[in-house]
């Protein structure tokens, strides 16, 4: 599988897992006394987070990202919906064959 395509998929999956963890699993743990959700979703999100970081670094050159854009893409991993935006505006256009825009 192409690194850019893998990054697109992992970017979306990481963002979804973050939202599930934040909006469903954590409230169930703290308000519903049901820690099982975090026990399941937490490790899944952790693996996706690490995969996103690794793939973003590996795909950097292929995507034409400068250091600033790379740092922003990596920082996006700690914000709940930011990986959706990275995928939509910085990864998808390159994956479809369009030239990479260089703006940080």
From TrEMBL:
<keyword id="KW-1133">Transmembrane helix</keyword>
<keyword id="KW-0812">Transmembrane</keyword>
<keyword id="KW-0472">Membrane</keyword>
<feature type="transmembrane region" description="Helical">
    <location>
        <begin position="71"/>
        <end position="91"/>
    </location>
</feature>
<feature type="transmembrane region" description="Helical">
    <location>
        <begin position="6"/>
        <end position="26"/>
    </location>
</feature>
<feature type="domain" description="DUF3817">
    <location>
        <begin position="5"/>
        <end position="90"/>
    </location>
</feature>
<dbReference type="Pfam" id="PF12823">
    <property type="entry name" value="DUF3817"/>
</dbReference>
<protein>
    <recommendedName>
        <fullName>DUF3817 domain-containing protein</fullName>
    </recommendedName>
</protein>
<keyword id="KW-1003">Cell membrane</keyword>
<dbReference type="InterPro" id="IPR023845">
    <property type="entry name" value="DUF3817_TM"/>
</dbReference>
<feature type="transmembrane region" description="Helical">
    <location>
        <begin position="38"/>
        <end position="59"/>
    </location>
</feature>
